[in-house]
Each structure stands twice: as structure tokens, then as C-alpha cells.
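Cont'd.
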Amino acid sequence: MTKADTRSETSALRATWTAGRMHARRYRLLSRALRKRRQIRPVTDRTAQIRPADILCFSTVRNEATRLPFFLDYHRAQGVRHFLMVDNDSTDETRDYLAGQPDVSLWHTAYSYRLSRFGMDWLTWLQFRHGHGHWCLTLDADELLVYPHHDSRSLQDLTGWLDSRRTRAFGAIMLDLYPKGRLGAQNYRPGQNPLEVLRWFDEGNIFYKYQPNLQNLLVRGGVRRRVFFHSAPERSPTLSKTPLVRWHRRYVYVSSTHSVLPRWLNHVRGDIAGDPTSGVILHTKFLPEIVGKSRIEKRRREHFANSILYNSYYDGLMDDPVLWGPQSCEYEDWQQLERLGLLSRGGWM
Amino acid sequence: MSVGFIILAHSALHRVGQVATHLARSQAPVVLHIDQNVPKTDYTALRSETGGHETIRFAPRHRCEWGMWSIIEATKDATGIMLEAFPDIQHVYLMSGSCIPLRPVADLRAYLDRYPETDFIESVTTLDVPWARGGLEEERFTLHFPFPWRRKRKLFDRYVALQRRLGLNRHIPEGLVPHLGSQWWCLSRKTLEAIFSDPDLPRYDRYFRRVWIPDESYFQTLVRCHGRSIESHSLTLSKFDHEGRPHIFYNDHTDLLRRSGCFFARKIWPEADTLYDTFLNAPPAAPQAEPETDAIDRLFSAALDKRLHGRAGLYMSGRWPTKERKDTTAASYSVFQGFNDLFPDFGTWLSRTIGGSVHGHIFAPDRAHFAGGVAVYKGGLPDSAALRDYNPEAFLCNLIWNNRGERQCFLFSPADRQQITRFLAADQNAQINVISGAWALPLFRSNRTLAEIRTEAVHLQKAEAAFLDQLHRRSSASRVHIWTLAEFLHNPLEALQTIIDDIAPHRPVQLASSPETVPMQGFARFLQMLKNDGMKPYLTGDFPVREHTTLPTRRKAKPTLVK
């Protein structure tokens, strides 16, 4: 046996081993979600309204009363037919507001967000129960999905096209938006389009790395990396997401929506050198309330597995910084994002 | 003189009904074939919706399977009904349930009246088609295909493999020359009747039953036996992607389709309300007589290119070339090593000469020295060394991508972080200029002790040698100019001219003078001192120790041009 043979055999062995590990991981995560299903209690269950071809949106929220009106309106207009939301013990009007929406089914839990894999265990159960066969959009309340032609075509058009291409997943990256001036000095009223306040982003500060185990791209960068993670690049937040998947009850998200199992769902990148259709998630985290919220979140330690390491990040936000700079790019439309190389129509003309 | 329409439909029947009634209202006969797989309720709904129209007929239903003979059977039955029930039609137009008329039927009638005997059908020999689906071009006609490709792929593939191994080769019936083309045609009554009355037809049918995707070859082949005047293109506008699947038209394509001047287009997204409303209710007035598809062709070939090749040098969530394609940047850029050691003002001089900004040492250990000394460069690229060194290749790719359209030049030195050298050497967009050994000049002018200088010199020479070694490798794709310091000093102006010409070949700049060099009195002595201390600074080239005050005599510099 030659050296090359030995090497290829070892790598084949390793690939089989990894595949087996990922398979086991998938079922471990699924059974974990099943075990935790009783942590969430229905507040209003309108899932009987869901019809077979409906596009569903899943989300875990906490104290998002200011963002939710626009979040729901925006995605409703794009074509989401039903929202399945878990309220993680909000102390503001979030619960009443959501319970009053005709197309929202709401669950409540007071269990730990961090210990439920940042809400993913709860959502996995809901996806298992209600998402099978549907196109499912999984987002946070501070995320707005932008896809090519979103101003003239609906999500149904997109998913119909993905179906015709036998594609079951749609990839996107998060784009952190920020205001010009201090974060806390802006005005935002509930229901307003956050893009009127947060108009700026870093367009060319995004780094990609391939992760062979999950076969996905690990994307980092944007304004948070530039400002808060100078000394610890490996801890800067991940921007890659696969938010839209034609769900099967055996699928499971691994960490947030950054990666999903089975692994072939992560193949949302080009096969050789071309780019398939992809989108952008506009991240409206930096609305003025972030300054006060950071103080609370720093104390709650619910958002990172190792929260102590992120203290300086919270401290930075509590200082009410200016993220804007003369190099910042102002948001226009999806065509601009395509020119900048942040999303692509791929073959979807 | 008239035209009749055959519609083959299997889904979105409400749209089919709309199109059929639209055509019927324009006094055109329509024969509908509705796939047997369509639920009965939908079928009866369509029948009652179109019931009021005399000229809408329904053909016997077949269960159609993609790529199989059943579609031809359906087409033949429907055509038979059309020819028999409407004796005054001269042309039969075959369309699908997802087609939409872009121009009034009267336009088409007028057009066809001008070519009463012509058959509009794309029909080309197998040698001339670039379509690739599973590499089955000629084998469509020479193997048996009893299994449906979509439903029973494994069986399909295995049976093909088996036939190939056994060397089976079907006999193509005498008199037939296989032709391929779009399924959607418009044939004249004469041709169709000639095809259907051909005494050999049963023999041909038996053959085509086992041909793969006969809807793209049956009429396309037979028309060559009977047609007298063939226009080998389809009157239906349709576009295909790299996998042979049709592109879909949406509301936002309305203008594009209107301008095309084609008679029909497919395939139309059933939810595209505006498109259906526009073309079915208010047909556009008086467009040009001949179809004009340039704009659409351009748009879709751009889409194809983007889907297959993407934009070089761009890395994004969708575009991540796998290993077989070499990583590269988006545009040409220049790297200068050693120049600012020799010319203290090199950055300013270069910036003035080429009319663009020049970065400092963007790979310096302390931070990235961007042009203008800014802390955050275009695109939000920060100057932090830690962020840069976490992924230097991505840092460089980002810098080049963010500034595409403006040539990037930056300084490099063996004292900088060296992880990037491998990428630089392999990148075809890099133009790398090196004055080797120039790192000795700052050492020569420093006030440090000989021991310190020596340690530093050893380190720098080693780093530079490693870089040069990478540039000389066979795998190196960058454009490289290398001089030793001594060579360069023989004729600095000519060397600089070489570089400038290389940067902007189409915009010649004639250099009048080279920038000012650092004072070099005693440099040769300094090198000799290092040698005496046991270190050989060989990358500087030869500096004879005899002369201390003047530069070496002017002699033609010989740049080593690699590639």
C-alpha cells in the first residue's frame, strides 16, 4: 500500500467517523428538545389555522414589545402566514401584544434561555410538531430577512423557485445596522421601520471560514467585530445563518440558525465557484434601547455560553458608543447589497 | 387562414382556464390536454369554467410522465382533434399550461399569414446542441429508456449503465435523422397531415416509444421528412438554466417581456398576477413585427454566468470556491518590498506618479498602516493587528474587493507578518516588486550596537529569503520583479520605469527622475563589518568595499523577470 493510499483511507475513515458523530448529535439534540417540550406552555394556540402550503415563522422573544409590531408586519407582507413564538418570561407588554395577534400562536416559558440552547430546544420541538413539510423561517425579533427581489416577489415566489430547483435551504448572512451618532441618542417608536433609525453598516469587513465538520461557512465580521472584539477575534459573533428551510421533523438547528443537521442542508454555498441565491438578515440590534438592555443582559448572563468573557462587550455598549464612521455605508436596497457582494440572485433572475 | 392552440397542462388550472378563454375570445380554437394526474375536482372546475366557449375542446386524458412517450401520445391526440374539428386552421401552435400570450392573437395570425407554409420548430442535429443532461445526447436515440428519469432515477441510471456495458445500440429507423429542439412548436396543417398520414408512422412510433424525452425529438425529427420550409426556432420565448430547467417569469419581468415582441413566453409563475392581468386583459398595442430577444438573452446569460462562475475574488455566504479553484483576489494590486528603505518618501512619490493612494505596511506587527493613516479603512476594515492576523488572506481579499476599481499598492517588508507571503506568491493578481537586501539600509543608519544589528539582520535576511523562495516556485502565479539592492542602484530610474509600465500599461507615464535615496556613504563598509562579524548579507548583491562615497558606476540594471 502506498503512502497516498494510506492517507486517503485515513481521511475516508475520518469522514465516516465525523458523519456518524453528526448523526448521533442530531438525534441527541432532537431527543433533548422532545424532553424539554413541557417547559413551554401554550398561551394562545392558533396552530389549527395553519394550512399545508403556509410559510411559518419561529421565534423566541423576551421584552421585544417595541420591535415586534414592525417585525410581524414586515414578514407578514413578505408572505409569512403564521408565527409560532415562545415568550421567555417578558416583563413588558410582549405577551399581551402577541396574544392579541390573529396569526400568532404563543407559548410561554420561564426556564433559562441559555440552558435551552438559546431557545433552540423549544423551537426545535415546535418545528418538530408543526413545521414538518412547511418552509420555516427561524428568526429573532431583531432580524429582518432580505432576499433578492423581495420588493417585488413574495416569500412564496422564493420558496416556489427553491422547490423547483430541489433546494431545501436558503442561506443568508447577518448585517449589523447602526445609527449615525450615539446609540442611545436616537428616537424609535414601536411600529416604525427600524431602517429609518439604523441606516448604516460595514460592508467589507466580513470574514469567511469553512468548517469541515458541519460543512458550513463560519462567517464573522461587521461592526461588532470591528469595535468590540479587537483583542479576541475568535469570540466575535457569527453572522452566517440558514434561516429558511423546508422543514422535516428529523432536522435540527445546531447553534442558533448558524448551522443545521443533516449537514447537506448547510450546502447553501456555490458548488464550484458560482453563487446560488442567497440573502441578508438585517440585524436591528442597535436600536436605542440596547444601552439599557445591555446592563440587564450583562447581569442575566443568558446570551453566551461563557458570559463572563463578554463583559467588555456589554460594557462597551453600556458606554453608549458611536459606531458610525466616515467609511460607513448607507443602506439603500437589495440591489446595493448584491453589488457589494453580500447577497446574490444566483440564477434567480 | 387561422391558427389553433393546443395546451398541455398539469397544474395551476385556473391560469390555464384564463389563457384558454382569452384565446377563445380572440376567435382561436383551443384543444386542452389535462394530465390524468390532475384531481378530478380541478378538472371539472376547468371544464365548467370554459364551458361557454364553442371553440374550446378537451382531448382524451393521458397520465403524462416527464421525459416519456405519454406526452407525445397526448400531443398527437390533441393535434388530431384540432385538425379534424377545425378544418379552416392553417397552423397548430403547441403550448404549455404555464405559457402566456404576449401579443394579441391577431398579431400572430398576421405573422403566420405571411409564412403560410412555414413550420416554426427548433430542430437541430444532436451534434449541434450544447445541452448536457447526464451526457445523454446521442444515446437518447441509441439506447432503450423504459424507466422514468424523475421517479426511478436509480433504475434509469443502472439500465443505461448496463446497456453501455453490453454495447447495445438501437437501430434508428431508415429515413430518420435524429433532430432535437424545444418542445414548443407551431407547425402548418400540411406538414402535420403529412406526418400523420406517413405509412411508416407506426414503425417510427414504435421506435420513439423508447427514446428518452421524445417531446424534444419526435416532431423535431419527423418534420425533417415532411416539412418544406422550416424556420428552426420556437415562437415561444423560454430560457433555461445550467441544469436544463426553465427560468420562471415574474411580475417584475412584465416590461422585459413586453419589449421582447415574442408571441408567447414560458414559464410563467402562476402567482404572477400583474403579468397575467397585463397580457390577458389589455394586450399591448402595435409592437414590432419580428421578435427581438436580445435584452432577455443578455439578462439570462448574465444570470447563468453568475450562477456558474460568480465574481472572482468575492467571498460570500453563497460563493466559496472549493479547492480545485485557486483562491484569488478581485483585482490587480502591487506589493513593494524594500523601496521605502531606499527611498524615504517612496509612498508619496508613487502615489503622485500613479495618481492613487498608497498604503504603508498593512502587515506591520503593530497595526495595519492604511493610506492616510486612518484607523478604519473603506468597507469598515479596522487596522487591528489581532483581527488581521486571525485571517490575513481574508483581510487582503476584503481590502482588494472593497476597493475594486482603484488599484491598491502597499509596502511590505521582511519585518512584517509573513503568513501572507504564500498567498501573495500564488495570487495571479499580485504584482510583487522586491529590492532584496534593502532592509540593511535602516540597520546601517540606526544607532544600535553591532550585536543587535547582527541578530536583526539574520532574522530579516531569513524572512526575505523564504519569501523570494516562494516567488521563485513553479506554483507562483504572481508577476514578480526582483532586484538585489546593488543591481537596483545601477539604474534606479529604469527599474522604476519597468514597474510603472507594468502597473498601467495602457496609460504610459514617462519618469523624469527617481525619488531621492537615503545617504549611502559607508554602506559598503557596513556590510563588510557584518561579514567580518561572521554574517553574510548576500541578498544585497555586491557592494565592493573599495569605494565608500560614490554609487557604483551606471550600468544597465538587469531585473529578473519571473513570468
